[in-house]
Write a structure and sequence with these properties.
By secondary structure, this protein is an all-alpha fold. It has helices at about 5-30, 35-45, 50-95.
């Protein structure tokens, strides 16, 4: 799996875990008669901090994977340019020192 794909997958998991905490609190408190902010905060406390901690870890790992992929991509661009340069030099020597263009072109 590529690092960019892994990074985006971890960021998606992070968003899912962040939202699942609120969804779980809403489901847990769905059977109650009175809804207010204090009651919902009690439900969030009942769910705990596990999803938030896992979400933060997944977010940090996802961003790290994306940064590493970008930094690695810049070195790959240099390598690709080197390959192109080497290929052009090879073509130059194979054609006997000519540019490889036809003599009729301007």
């Amino acid at each position: 799996m590529h690092r960019r794909t892994t990074g985006m997958l971890l960021i998606t998991i992070s968003a899912f875990l962040y939202g699942i905490r609120y969804l779980a609190a809403a489901i847990y408190g769905a059977n109650t008669q009175a809804w207010n902010a204090d009651h919902f905060n009690e439900m969030l406390n009942f769910i705990g901090n596990g999803p938030i901690i896992l979400s933060t870890i997944a977010l940090i790992l996802g961003i790290t994977y994306l940064l590493v992929a970008e930094l690695e991509g810049t070195s790959m661009r240099k390598q690709i340019e080197q390959i192109k340069s080497n290929w052009n030099e090879f073509d130059f020597y194979e054609t006997g020192g000519s540019s490889g263009k036809s003599k009729g072109s301007k």
